[in-house]
Specification:
Elements (H helix, E strand, L loop, with lengths): L1 H19 L18 E9 L11 E9 L7 E13 L5 E4 L11 E7 L12 E8 H8 L11 E10 L4 E2 L6 H5 L8 E5 L2
Antiparallel strand pairs: 1-2, 2-6, 3-4, 3-5, 3-7, 7-8, 7-9
Keywords: Signal
């Protein structure tokens, strides 16, 4: 009887061991049909504020990484757009250029990057590009002068990425996880305060 119990326990153990390692569910997911996007991961922010007493030497400077299934090679262009924002006493903002119909964002193009601006790097398989402009370039694009800028003002820098399939990605259509999570770090919108 003891031998039968031992054999039964060993067989039961073997059955449990073999069946626990087998996946009986074969997921039917159409991986080849997924429509994968591209996003711009922020790698570094060297300079992201403007000094009101020295706008001539103030600049916006970040490095982004194009993340897509082709290592960043689906990028066709990245528009760098800017607008000025001033808080109003009592709430609200005044924008330059003014907000459009239905409060749509109006901003101006300051520069455009192409795939040629994205280069390989030693830290990842994705292509990287630097995005840099001076405060004076932003003012010129907006038609503003230095004396129109106050401490507490902000500049909104928006990135608008177009891929080789004609799709556009920006701060409006990017998901919350892409924009806000530390790993993705792809807000497509950067607030540049004036100190």
């Amino acid at each position: 009887m003891k031998i039968i119990k031992k054999i039964f326990v060993k067989l039961l153990t073997l059955v449990v061991l073999f069946t626990s390692c087998t996946d009986f569910v074969d997921p039917v997911l159409p991986y080849k049909d997924f429509n994968l996007a591209v996003y711009l991961r922020t790698i570094s922010r060297t300079s992201t504020s403007f000094n009101s007493s020295n706008l001539a030497d103030s600049k916006f400077n970040i490095t982004v990484e194009a993340v897509d299934p082709e290592g960043g090679r689906t990028v066709e262009s990245v528009e760098v757009r800017v607008r000025h924002r001033r808080s109003v006493v009592g709430g609200g903002f005044i924008f330059t250029p003014a907000a459009g119909a239905n409060n749509l964002v109006n901003d101006v193009l300051i520069k455009t990057l192409t795939l040629a601006d994205f280069q390989p790097n030693n830290e990842s398989r994705f292509l990287r590009a630097g995005i840099q402009f001076t405060a004076l370039e932003a003012l010129s694009a907006l038609g503003l002068s230095e004396n129109q800028i106050n401490v507490g003002d902000n500049f909104e820098v928006r990135l608008k990425l177009r891929d080789k399939f004609g799709r556009v990605f920006n701060d409006i259509n990017a998901g919350a996880s892409i924009k806000n999570e530390v790993f993705y770090a792809s807000p497509f919108l950067y607030i540049v305060p004036v100190n």
